[in-house]
Design a protein that fits this description.
15% strand, 40% helix, Aspartate Aminotransferase, domain 2, alpha/beta, 7-stranded mixed sheet, Aspartate Aminotransferase, domain 1, 4-stranded antiparallel sheet
Length: 385
């Protein structure tokens, strides 16, 4: 291990700043359009801001109950049952968290011990592996190949052994925009039948899915639900990524373990914002219209680059579009992303950073959660490359 000083040593050898921090910093330094980090450049609903202000002014500025605002949890339970047919007890099976990343770390910390193996699919969101390593778990990787990035479930069967304690899935998938379908979840259900393996299902883009597809939440599958943490994000749904708010659904026995860690890691989440969400979540039109809202932005982006030299990888969900550049440059994707930022003033994310072995397929990820004006400027730049 790398020595710090005296008898101190790093717990995360070889891991530096997140790629999102690196590329956003570069975009700011170069005054480039930032299509790297996944955040909207438009505001959240004005009504939601007014609600937060109202609860702040009315004195809701102290600690919430540890698991979260009761009214908000009840409305999440109602929404989940209505959308997916799953029943969760607001008292024992729902916790409000300070964002999805914190929720993911808490779930892994609650159950993964030294030498426990965790299966994940790469390219994978960059918080998964460090969370496993910090808990002395062992990541086991299954590589997904472009352009479809589909899971070969036979690979999963071969990798499972007595050390396997958890499988992490992510649908819609960041960074690739692919989704799991009904057959995928049924295959996972069969594989895990009569096995004591936990599923951590990252579903933060549940309301951003395109072309008439249905979000296949773990919540739709009772056997999987009984052994799963489901992580959701208010930030993605309500254009409030900077508020860092999410929630977790899990059966009572799993949530009891989650609570043990959560109370000492975070204890509770932002009070006035929870009250505001509890009011605003009843506006079903907002989250039910997100599919069309972001599909329009995806299509504007794709229409704008149709005459460019970039290759388009199908995007079925999230607000990220992956593009190949193998006909443009022989550079590695990190080098090419830096070149685009510095020379052409547009920032993206190199997808190789989501692979533990930095497997480079010459693919970049662009965020299209942007205003039409930003998307127009971005596509004009890309068409000139």
């Amino acid at each position: 291990m790398v020595k710090l000083q005296g008898n101190l040593s790093t717990k995360l050898h070889g891991i530096g700043d997140s790629i999102f921090a690196v590329m956003t910093r570069m975009a700011n330094e170069e005054k480039a359009l930032n299509l790297s980090q996944g955040f909207p450049d438009f505001n959240c609903p004005e009504k939601l801001i007014d609600l937060v202000y109202k609860y702040m002014k009315n004195g809701f500025n102290q600690y919430s109950p540890m698991p979260g605002n009761q009214r908000l949890k009840e409305r999440i339970a109602e929404k989940t049952e209505k959308l997916y047919g799953a029943t969760y007890d607001p008292d024992d099976e729902i916790i409000i968290t300070s964002g999805a990343t914190q929720a993911i770390y808490t779930a892994i910390t609650a159950l993964i011990k030294e030498k426990d193996e965790v299966i994940l699919f790469e390219p994978a969101y960059d918080s998964y592996v460090p969370s496993i390593l910090l808990n002395k778990g062992v990541p086991k990787y299954i590589n997904l190949q472009p352009p479809d990035y589909k899971i070969n479930w036979d690979d999963v069967k071969r990798l499972i052994n007595f050390k396997t304690k958890m499988i992490i899935i992510n649908t819609p998938h960041n960074p690739t925009g692919t989704i799991l379908n009904d057959q995928d979840l049924k295959e996972l259900d069969k594989i895990l039948d009569n096995r004591d393996i936990i599923v951590l299902s990252d579903e933060v883009y549940e309301h951003i899915i395109f072309d008439g597809h249905r979000h296949e939440s773990i919540c739709r599958y009772p056997n999987l639900l009984s052994k799963s943490f489901v992580v959701a994000s208010f930030g993605k749904t309500y254009h409030t990524t900077g508020w860092k708010m999410g929630y977790v659904l899990a059966p009572k026995n799993l949530m009891a373990e989650f609570r043990k860690v959560y109370q000492f890691l975070q204890f509770t989440a932002n009070t006035p914002i929870q009250h505001a969400y509890a009011d605003f979540i009843t506006n079903e039109e907002h989250y039910l219209s997100l599919n069309d809202f972001y599909q329009k932005k995806r299509d504007i982006f794709l229409e704008g680059i149709k005459d460019s030299r970039f290759g388009i990888i199908p995007c079925s969900g999230t607000y990220f579009q992956c593009l190949t550049y193998d006909t443009i440059s022989d550079m590695g994707d990190m080098e090419f992303a830096a070149e685009l930022t510095r020379t052409h003033k547009i920032a993206s994310i190199p997808v190789s950073v989501f692979n533990h072995n930095k497997d480079d397929k010459k693919v970049l990820r662009f965020c299209f959660a942007k205003s039409e004006d930003t998307l127009k400027k971005a596509t004009e730049i890309l068409c000139k490359i």
